[in-house]
Design a protein that fits this description.
The protein is 66% helix and 1% strand. β1 and β2 form a beta hairpin. α2 packs parallel to α14, α7 packs across α10 and α15 packs across α16. By secondary structure, it is mainly alpha-helical. The protein has two domains: 108 residues, no CATH class; 229 residues, no CATH class. It has a two-stranded antiparallel sheet.
């Protein structure tokens, strides 16, 4: 293995702005979803452009890929990218390997608890749900952390084996009544959901998505190590471009050749490859734009501010914070914009809520309050 890929350059540890930008942009888009803004676009009459945007800002019903299907992979990927930077900074501060490991374990368990707690209460009972991004991230983060010191070859082969075994399990695992590999509610993911949650028909989203999407976070680690390496900038960009395009080629070919369909809701191998490819290319573009060309260095701070408190704002809008903030604006937007119609009132209210949630992150950033786990 090339030592340049694993030996970090001390001068750039913690100074890759595109990593914080990528994380912040992803979370900023999630904040927008929490305001219900995207769903309003589809209700604008006579605008095929807005209808197209609304479609892309929603999950595909089953077989296919929309832009919004990339958001969770982006988030899990960028968490992986940040792992080598975070560990290097802790070592720089004098933390021992044992201390860092204990922190990683506690963080993983807390992510699992928070992800479960957001969706655990059903009418009259408590149900264990594992579909939430935080719960699934608790698994992918821990696995990626445990193997990130291994060689590039080991990490890559590990993810490919995970994807292969998951694909084979969907095809051949003998489960009576759930033997249609790629049919909604009739596959291994649906059976696993039923066993975990104890009910006959649960969410279409599979809890075992945490297994194949380990690849997203581990691949993030690999490219975090690449960014920290002493390789020339041009070479880093070339590697990211080739890897991203390879991911797209593999993912879309598996789908086009009817080998494995792209299905986000059960994270098929073709989906993981395709979304992973897009994630790598997005990181490559961000790195080129912000860190290399310095073309968006100042503007990127708008999104970096969100990324610095991403877990806090994610939890805040998931427990109803966005609805609470929106309820403050609705009376005023109705007063001043009712003449433009109901949909205009809703859009303005959503935009005001979105900006307010961003300002919360800005206030925390300005006062140097960073809520982390």
């Amino acid at each position: 293995m090339d030592k340049n890929l694993t030996n970090p350059d001390p001068s750039i540890i913690g100074r890759i702005a595109s990593v914080d930008f990528f994380r912040g942009l992803t979370m900023f888009l999630l904040i927008g979803e929490s305001t219900h803004l995207y769903s309003h676009f589809n209700k604008i009459e006579g605008s095929s452009v807005m209808h197209f945007i609304a479609t892309q800002l929603d999950h595909h019903e089953w077989h296919g890929l929309y832009f919004w299907d990339l958001i969770q992979p982006f988030f899990m990927f960028i968490v992986g990218v940040a792992i080598p930077f975070a560990v290097a900074n802790r070592i720089k501060k004098g933390d021992s390997g044992q201390t860092i490991l204990h922190h990683a374990i506690k963080r993983s368990l807390l992510l699992l608890f928070l992800g479960w707690a957001l969706y655990c209460i059903e009418p009259g009972e408590i149900v264990f749900r594992f579909q939430n991004v935080l719960a699934q991230l608790s698994v992918t983060y821990m696995v990626a952390f445990l193997i990130f010191k291994r060689s590039f070859t080991f990490q890559l082969i590990f993810t490919l084996v995970v994807l292969l075994l998951t694909d084979l399990a969907y095809r051949f695992f003998p489960v009576e009544g759930f033997n249609h590999s790629w049919v909604a509610f009739e596959n291994l993911g649906a059976w696993t959901n039923n066993k975990i949650e104890g009910v006959d028909k649960t969410s279409i989203w599979a809890s075992i998505n945490a297994i194949p999407t380990i690849a997203h976070t581990v691949w993030g680690v690999l490219f975090g190590q690449l960014l920290m390496s002493t390789r020339p900038v041009k070479k880093k960009i070339q590697i990211m471009l080739m890897a991203g395009l390879a991911g797209l080629l593999i993912g879309y070919s598996l789908d086009f050749l009817n080998i494995t369909p792209i299905i986000k809701k059960i994270s098929t191998s073709s989906f993981v490859f395709a979304s992973g490819g897009w994630a790598i290319l997005a990181l490559c573009f961000s790195y080129w734009l912000i860190d290399v060309k310095k073309l968006f260095a100042s503007g990127s701070k708008f999104f970096i501010i969100v990324g610095m408190n991403c877990i806090f704002i994610y939890l805040f809008f998931h427990i109803g914070g966005a609805n609470l903030v929106s309820s403050i604006f609705v009376p005023f937007t109705k007063l001043f914009f009712s003449w433009a119609g109901d949909i205009s009132v809703k859009i303005v209210s959503s935009l005001a809520t979105w900006l307010s949630l961003w300002y919360m992150c800005y206030w925390l950033y300005k006062n140097r309050i960073f809520i982390k786990i």
